[in-house]
């Protein structure tokens, strides 16, 4: 009884002085020539403002005489990490230079040109690659190099520029192994004494097998035609991938591509991080990616470009599954934290820096009320010199007008993150979801009527138990399961004994 009586007082103490572990963990844009004195002063200022961790994110603007993953590069990284350790800060390493992840700033392809991004395209003639299928209309599905790139860390390496690094085919196991060896193993070699203490995670950012600027291509794995044929579809039906139509072939295609990507990329990164005493965090490419999140020790998503702001459609848009989906996956996996990269490119048009403190608090509230308990603000800029200030603004930290008051913001984030951690919500309704099939429009009425629910990935149903008419998983027991998915005999068997609804109106 004494413990129970002490709870309100202890809670008040925690809220008054929230623990540092619930700090915001901003992207720190390492985007200029590193100066040790400036770095040290900047990190000390972060701590004074209640920011106790950063994502060390190499970003466009690093001088060309500091090549990515070079000795000069790691001289700066070692200093930043040592400085953070001395201040009691935590570091999340970012796995690319710059994004999307998987290419080691083009080093994977430089090591072996065959590792460059590949995919299938719809062609008039059977040239430029391997013919996967000849179509009835005389066209061909051809497998070849996409020409995809990533955004780099030096000026002249952005989208459409000649120096943009070549992207790697992360559906190729050998290419992924090269990426891990060049990136993760090298970071560990340089910083191993900090792993598990100061260095707590690796951040992977919207991995993409095709690369950027490869819109004429679709992902492919050599030999996948056999899997498609075994699934009862005809290869010529894949032409629908390029016309926007949907059929049984495209549905199976997408399932297989996601499966291969999880097994080839996410599983490898997850295992590496776990075996080196840190977490895999970051986020997959799409807001409705579900099964990819199972490989993250800290599941995450990214909320950018004002995608859920009231003027964009709010609850009726696909990105409205953000935050809630990730938080619910984390609770069902027993993961203590879940993250969201937030505020990026969220200024009000036409001025990209028009992002107010009121806007920021609106996003913080939107995310945390849905269960997010680790916020990754995008971004704190090391430098805003020249074109750097125009690169995915705004700065939401030291280069903004609210910085002198930022302790109020960081404490607010810590308090809400603390409240959203080590607790369960009271949801009695589970909404089934599957990879890239996450209901949102159908659930708007639940939000509007303050009805709590949790997304439950169908892939986790085998881990559930039915007890006294409720579907139970870990600390959650659901009286009703809402199932919008196609009929499936195995799923019906798993839900036997539980009330199942097929619309929100049935609740």
Describe the structure.
The protein has helices at residues 2-16, 36-48, 71-86, 107-111, 173-182, 184-191, 224-230, 248-275, 324-333, 357-368, 406-419, 444-448, 489-494, and strands spanning 27-30, 53-58, 90-94, 98-99, 118-123, 130-134, 140-145, 151-152, 199-205, 217-218, 279-283, 300-303, 339-342, 374-377, 380-381, 429-433, 454-457, 465-467, 470-473, 476-478, 480-482, 499-501. It is α/β, with parallel strands linked by helices and 507 residues long. Among the domains are: 1-94 and 298-422, no CATH class; 429-506, Rossmann fold (3-Layer(aba) Sandwich). It has a six-stranded parallel sheet with strand order 11-9-3-2-1-15. Strands 6-7-5-10 form a four-stranded antiparallel sheet, with no helix packed on it. Strand 18 (465-467) and strand 19 form a beta hairpin. The radius of gyration is 24 Å and the shape is globular. The protein starts with a helix and ends in a 6-residue tail after the last strand. InterPro entries: Ulvan_degrading_GH.
Please describe the structure with a list of short key phrases separated by commas or semicolons.
507 residues, alpha/beta, Rossmann fold, globular, four-stranded antiparallel beta sheet, six-stranded parallel beta sheet, 13 helices
What is the quaternary state of this protein? single chain
The main sheet comes to: 6 strands, parallel
Strand content: 15-25%
Mean pLDDT metric: 96
Shape: globular
Count the DSSP helices: 13
Distance between the termini: 38 Å
| Helical percentage | 25-40%
Low-confidence stretches: none
- CA radius of gyration: 24 Å
Structural class: alpha/beta
Main sheet strand line-up: 11-9-3-2-1-15
Number of E-type strands: 22
């Amino acid at each position: 009884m004494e413990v129970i009586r002490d709870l309100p007082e202890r809670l008040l103490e925690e809220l008054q002085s929230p623990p540092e572990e619930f700090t915001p963990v901003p992207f720190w844009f390492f985007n200029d020539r590193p100066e040790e004195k400036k770095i040290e002063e900047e990190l000390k200022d972060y701590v004074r403002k209640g920011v106790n961790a950063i994502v060390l994110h190499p970003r466009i603007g690093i001088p060309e005489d500091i090549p990515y993953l070079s000795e000069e590069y790691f001289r700066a990284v070692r200093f930043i990490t040592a400085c953070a350790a001395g201040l009691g800060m935590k570091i999340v390493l970012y796995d690319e230079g710059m994004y999307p992840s998987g290419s080691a700033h083009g080093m994977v392809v430089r090591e072996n040109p065959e590792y460059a991004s590949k995919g299938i395209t719809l062609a008039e003639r059977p040239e430029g690659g391997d013919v996967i299928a000849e179509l009835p209309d005389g066209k061909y599905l051809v497998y070849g190099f996409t020409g995809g790139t990533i955004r780099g860390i030096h000026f002249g390496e952005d989208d459409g520029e000649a120096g943009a690094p070549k992207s790697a085919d992360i559906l190729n196991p050998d290419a992924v192994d090269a990426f891990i060896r060049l990136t993760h193993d090298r970071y560990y070699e340089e910083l191993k004494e900090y792993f598990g203490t100061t260095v707590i995670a690796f951040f992977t950012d919207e991995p993409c097998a095709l690369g950027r600027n490869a819109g004429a291509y679709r992902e492919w794995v050599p030999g996948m035609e056999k899997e498609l044929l075994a699934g009862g579809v005809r290869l010529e039906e894949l032409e629908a991938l390029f016309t926007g139509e949907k059929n049984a072939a495209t549905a199976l295609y997408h399932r297989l591509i996601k499966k291969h990507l999880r097994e080839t990329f996410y599983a490898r990164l997850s295992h590496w991080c776990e075996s080196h005493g840190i977490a895999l965090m970051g986020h997959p490419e799409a807001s409705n990616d579900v099964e990819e999140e199972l490989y993250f020790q800290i599941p995450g998503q990214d909320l950018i470009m004002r995608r859920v702001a009231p003027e964009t459609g709010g609850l009726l848009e696909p990105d409205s599954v953000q935050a809630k989906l990730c938080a619910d996956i984390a609770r069902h996996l027993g993961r203590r934290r879940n993250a969201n990269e937030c505020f990026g490119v969220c200024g009000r048009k036409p001025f990209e820096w028009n992002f107010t403190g009121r806007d920021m608090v609106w996003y913080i509230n939107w995310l945390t009320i849905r269960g997010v308990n680790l916020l990754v603000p995008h971004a704190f800029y090391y430098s805003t010199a020249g074109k750097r200030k125009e690169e995915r603004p705004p700065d939401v930290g030291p280069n903004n007008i609210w910085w002198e008051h930022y302790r109020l913001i960081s404490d607010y984030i810590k308090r809400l993150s603390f409240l959203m951690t080590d607790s369960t919500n009271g949801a009695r309704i589970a909404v089934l979801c599957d990879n890239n099939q996450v209901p949102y429009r159908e659930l708007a009425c639940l939000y509007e009527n303050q009805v709590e629910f949790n997304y439950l990935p169908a892939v986790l149903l085998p881990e559930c138990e039915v007890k006294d008419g409720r579907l139970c998983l870990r600390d959650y027991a659901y009286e009703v399961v809402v199932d919008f998915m196609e009929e499936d005999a195995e799923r019906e068997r798993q839900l036997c004994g539980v009330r199942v609804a097929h619309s929100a109106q049935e609740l």
